[in-house]
Automatic annotation (TrEMBL):
Organism encoding this protein: Verticillium nonalfalfae
Coiled coil (UniProt feature): none
Family designation: Belongs to the FMO family.
Key words, A-Z: FAD, Flavoprotein, Oxidoreductase
Protein's recorded name: FAD/NAD(P)-binding domain-containing protein
């Protein structure tokens, strides 16, 4: 402070002398034009000196501020947390949309900012009008290294040419996509999803279909941000490129997409809520010859994220890889228009826990083993049986890679984020929180419970257990579920998880904050009933397809894997069975099966 005052006094004296000299110089110039005296030169040098000293002072002050921030200790636990007044939310999908409401209703923060890299809210429910990008680096997708951090300009703010590095912000929506979860368990507790039903869904599931067209979900999520002025908190077309802790503050480096260039700048916050999701970067397994196949016919290798509807595959020879929901939907969908058979790589892989493998029992679908290699347009399978020849497209429904390129200080291991307590709180620094770091079925509701806990903690109205207890929770979960994707699987312990988050969040204070109801088992029942409805639909339509077309007519007689397969129906769901499912899953892992 004293140094600043001395600097200001020195500047005032210099400016005074320069003003007097300037007046004298003006008189001199009128008397003797086109002649420069020593006083003129001294004045010119003085102006340059003032400009230089001013910039040096500004740079020194900025450097001093950064140094002070860097010297400030990082909070190792909740006791070291400073008052939280500025909160950044990354993402305006379902997790980000509900996080905004949870934070705002605490009425404890001076600033809430939401950064969304797309042009509107909705996350993976936001459609695209542009063609899907080509998968140009299959090796990086296979190695799970396809979304590295970008280079940041040395000085900010800055204007740069448009970024060309792929950021995987494109949509996974196709025109007739419907939800595969009942609207009741899918919706937030206080905001029901509208009952608009598409003719397509009604035709498949009846007048009371519980499923919704993707546009209904998109509008639903946007409406959450159009209330109470929340839209003013959102910065669209803005990507968070780096999040780093400097002292007690979080420094966010931001990039806004422009038509011809990108604009970069920084903002500072006390806490960060990461709600960016983990369904952006496709995973495509390494297969010999796959890269050559794609280069010979660009666009012939794609991920389910880039699927834009069955019409693109009319009359084509198609291989679909994957045994879970996306692959099942796509194989069943393209079977009606593609050349027979559609080769579905499912043998040796566990069926989806919720949906089974009923979709693959279509007469136009042939079940195949893993792909061993691709030679030209011929796909060879691991069991050595008849290859698929003259293949036009290979579609992968093989899941995603979780990446956090903007958080270089946070590890992503085995497709999960280590060090999170209750999948929400970063144990090393509880001013960093996550909404959506789970694999579950009641996703929107889980996001809501997580968001309320995060908001209460940041508002100082909820407390965490000791750090040792948080670490024990994670260690116990690793022992039970492993240090991989199953760690983040909430199923089937929904009730226990919801109630624990509700207990940690507490009721709030003086009526402030978003209130969480007690877990309702009817939510889970509706969730399971919806899955049964989809399986029944596949069974009904597949039976009809088999009745209408014989094997000889479909030319499936020589195709291995073609033919009816019956699936034993699961027992009726009850809560004792649900709670024992983890033990059953562990037993299944001992079998010769694997999941993508």
């Amino acid at each position: 402070m004293v140094d600043d005052l001395q600097h200001q006094d020195s500047q005032r004296i210099t400016i005074g002398v320069m003003t007097f000299a300037g007046m004298w110089c003006a008189i001199c110039r009128l008397a003797v034009p086109n002649v420069w005296c020593l006083l003129c030169l001294w004045q010119l040098l003085g102006v340059c000196s003032l400009w230089f000293r001013g910039h040096v002072a500004i740079d020194a002050k900025m450097a001093s501020t950064e140094e002070k921030r860097a010297r400030s200790p990082n909070p190792a636990n909740q006791d070291a947390m400073v008052a939280i007044k500025r909160v950044a939310v990354i993402g305006a999908g379902p997790g980000g949309a509900i996080a905004v409401d949870a934070l705002a209703k605490e009425k404890a923060f001076d600033l809430i900012r939401v950064f969304e890299r797309r042009e509107a809210a909705g996350g993976c429910w936001l459609g695209d009008t542009t063609p899907p990008p080509l998968l140009t680096d299959l090796e990086a997708l296979a190695n799970r290294t396809a979304d590295p951090p970008v280079d940041i300009p040395d000085r900010l703010p800055a204007q740069t040419p448009k970024l060309t590095q792929p950021r995987f912000a494109d949509s996974s929506v196709y025109p007739y996509l419907e939800t595969n979860v009942d609207a009741i368990p899918m919706s937030f507790s206080q905001e029901p999803i509208p009952s608009d039903r598409s003719p397509h869904s009604v035709a498949l599931h009846g007048e009371d279909t519980p499923f919704r067209h993707w546009t209904v979900i998109r509008r639903y999520l946007q409406s959450l941000l159009e209330r109470d002025g929340y839209e003013d908190l959102v910065s669209y077309s803005t990507t968070v490129e780096r999040v780093e802790k400097v002292g007690h503050e979080w420094k966010l480096t931001l990039r806004r997409d422009g038509e011809r260039s990108d604009y970069w700048w920084t903002e500072w916050f006390d806490a960060v809520v990461v709600a960016s999701g983990h369904y952006s970067v496709p995973y495509v397994p390494a297969i010999p010859g796959l890269d050559t196949f794609e280069k010979l016919r660009p666009g012939s290798v794609l991920h389910s994220k880039n699927f834009r509807g069955r019409d693109h595959y009319r009359g084509k020879r198609v291989v679909v890889v994957g045994a879970s929901v996306s692959a099942a939907d796509i194989a069943y969908d393209v079977a009606s228009v593609a050349q027979t058979p559609v080769h579905a790589v499912v043998d040796g892989h566990r069926a989806n826990l919720y949906f089974g493998d009923e979709a693959f029992n279509h007469p136009r679908i042939a079940r195949r083993s893993d792909i061993a290699r691709v030679d030209g347009r011929t796909v060879h399978f691991a069991d050595g049986r008849e290859p698929a020849r003259d293949v036009d497209a290979i579609i992968f429904g093989t899941g995603y890679t979780w990446t956090l390129p903007f958080l270089p200080g946070v590890e992503v291991r085995n497709n999960r984020v280590p060090g999170l307590y209750q999948h929400v709180v970063y144990q090393q620094d509880p001013t960093l929180l996550f909404v959506g770091a789970v694999a579950a079925g009641l996703t929107f509701k889980i996001f809501e419970w997580q968001a309320v806990l995060a908001a209460r903690l940041l508002a100082g109205r909820a407390t965490l257990p000791p750090l040792a207890d948080q670490q024990k929770w994670e260690a116990d979960r690793i022992a039970a579920f492993g240090d991989g994707p199953r760690f983040a699987l909430v199923h089937p312990h929904f009730e226990d998880y919801f109630n624990e988050l509700r207990r940690l969040a507490g009721p709030g204070e003086n009526g402030l904050g978003r209130q969480l109801p007690v877990f309702d088992r009817a939510w889970f029942k509706s969730f399971l009933d919806g899955h049964e409805r989809r399986k029944n639909m596949w069974q009904r339509l597949n039976a009809k397809a088999w009745d209408e077309a014989g094997v000889d007519e479909l030319n499936l007689g020589t195709v291995p894997g073609a033919g009816r397969k019956t699936i034993e129906a699961p027992p009726a769901y009850d809560w004792d069975t649900i709670r024992k499912l983890p033990l059953l899953l562990q037993a299944l892992q001992g079998l010769n099966t694997k999941a993508f």
